[in-house]
Amino acid sequence: MLEMRPDCERCGADLPADQHGAFICSFECTFCAECTDALDERCPNCGGELMDRPTRVGAALKKNPASTTRKFRAA
Q1: pTM over 0.85
Q2: Who's near 72: CB < 8 A, 6+ residues apart?
């Protein structure tokens, strides 16, 4: 099951699990659309392709909430 990380690892933007706009690699590194474009759709951590993250809504989100652990680390 996807961890559904709550923020962009590059800029810290909020990425709610029930909204579009998040992109992930196969290791679930998570980035916003703007940062994904700036990274040419490649994960800076593993070099993998960044793809649209699916959303999780309704009962599925209640039963399996998104992670609250933020990955952004200010420079």
Answers
A1: yes
A2: 7, 8, 9, 10, 11, 12
Going from the N-terminus, what domains does the chain have, and what CATH number goes with each?
1-56 (3.30.40)
Residue 19 vs residues 29, 45, 57, 61: alpha-carbon distances, Å? 17, 24, 9, 12
pLDDT string in tens for the chain (75-residue length)? 899 999 999 999 999 999 999 999 999 999 999 999 999 999 999 999 999 999 999 999 999 999 999 998 776
For residue 44, how many C-alpha atoms fall within 13 Å in the half-sphere facing its CB?
11
